């Protein structure tokens, strides 16, 4: 699972959104979840999110990796690495 912590006012978040949609379409066996930090501030705080976008890769209930920033290539590599 990839959890995308984002905000409507975040320009880098809007910039990377098409890339996230592309990655999600490629990896149909991976769930992609979007969390707006303004709407679910407590959740973002619980996961220690300090910058947006932040992507947490969660496998079997545990965080296995993290990408901070609009880094499409890093995100794709880490999704590919952890998807099985």
From TrEMBL:
GO CC list: cytoplasm
Key word Cytoplasm present: yes
Location(s), subcellular: Cytoplasm
InterPro entries (UniProt xref): Thioredoxin, Thioredoxin-like_sf, Thioredoxin_CS, Thioredoxin_domain, Thioredoxin_H-type-like
Keywords: Cytoplasm, Disulfide bond, Redox-active center
Any one Pfam family match given in the protein's UniProt record, by short name: Thioredoxin
GO molecular function: protein-disulfide reductase activity
Disulfide bonds, paired cysteine numbers: 10-13
Segment forming the signal sequence: none
Keyword Cytoplasm: yes
Domain Thioredoxin: 1-84
Annotated CDD domains: TRX_family
Family: Belongs to the thioredoxin family. Plant H-type subfamily.
This protein's name: Thioredoxin domain-containing protein
